[in-house]
Give the backbone structure.
Amino acid sequence: MPAATFAAADLGATSGRIVLGRVGHGTLDLAEVHRFANTPVRLPSGLHWDMLGLYQGVLDGLRAAGRQAEIASVGIDTWAVDHGLLDAGGSLLGNPFHYRDSRTDGVPEQIWRVLPPEELYAITGLQHLPFTTVYQLAAAAGSPQLDAARTLLLIPDLLTHWLTGSLGAEVTNASTTGLFDARAGAWSKKILDRIGLAPALLPPLRQPGEQAGTLLPHTAAATGLPEHTPVTVVASHDTASAVAAVPMAGRNAAYISCGTWSLAGLELDAPVLTQASQVANFTNERGIDGTIRYLHNVMGLWLLSESQRTWAAQGLTADLPELIAEAARARPFAALVDPDAPEFLAPGDLPARIAAHCTRTGQTPPDGPGGYVRCILESLALGHRAALRRAAELAGRSIDTVHLVGGGARNELLCQWTADATGLPVVAGPVEATALGNILVQARARGLVGDRTEMRRLVAATQPLRRYFPSGSIRAWDAAAARLNLL
């Protein structure tokens, strides 16, 4: 079968892009053809995504892609939990809320009155995150928007709907909502009944590899692509796409998908729904082929990027290579923070909040931007270590290799310190794991690549990878971990 070219619309929390992937026998080539900003908008009602701007970015990107190649298929992945509500006529009821909006503060406790957290975890297997879809819906209870809503679409499903007119909920993203039964692989009637949500609001589930439809006439005209161009359902949660492209070769490999968030964990055949897993706040989300992404969300490079924005606004250096060089020279373990502390979730002055965190925990705040970067990266490496060790313990697995994919694979200090902190070799790359996973699922649907093992072999054979081995004393990291646990 001849090689074919696929378009991946890959939308992250700060930007979106269209990536072309050419897949054939022993071939997997990527090229980014369009990038656009994803800038949230604060309105009187709260923090929202600019959904129409994002859609226009996708259309513009697909037009750019079509000028460069004949497109065999289009696939869309984005972040999880956020959603749009459609009325009876199919119109969007306002711009979707941003998961960092504060309207869900205190809402989980309201849900727990009718569905205790232990019972909720036993059904969904999800770690507690205050912005999960079920809590967002609870925050919207009684609002004119929710009262008028007839269909809920997660962000990638909404974009797919606008391109094709079809309605559906892709399963890897649906599994993040708190409305999904981890064992049954279906929407949970029990949860819907308890919280008073109409089952008709949730569209039918779809699996990665299914065809959602073809471009509508007006979207074909807007993109310049033929009307018969298919839109393929991919692993639409960006982490699920990234994990699909992790070049793992055995059961004892772990992964960290490192970008705005660090998603650290294991690929399993079945969910872990024990009380110990709930207490440890581990999540069981769907991957391709019915696999389970057993992982913990660690606040990732958001801590660094938000700090950079603050320094740039203050007229200080925000150049990443310079900051990394300063961090490498800074004193080791001078200050450590819990990267998952709730005060780090919202946008704003992160260095000030890190300083306050240090003061509150009896530490001297870091000295200058380089000291803050060292604090962030060492704390993230310790977060990676804790998540992976706990995942292995809870799942009854051992780990011999850590695969770090995504934008964090470019950060040499973070990769090396993750190897040092875990005492395990780290394979860094591919950086473009999410786009690769998106494209490979499309290519598999067309018969150009085989099972997950073959997909991952193709990634390992064609993409640049870098290996980091533990160096120095693990005792220093053990001491830092012990100290962090006491803060």
Summary: The chain has a mean pLDDT of 96. The radius of gyration is 22 Å. Residues 246-429+450-487 form a domain with the Nucleotidyltransferase; domain 5 fold (CATH 3.30.420.40). Residues 136 and 409 are 32 Å apart (CA to CA).
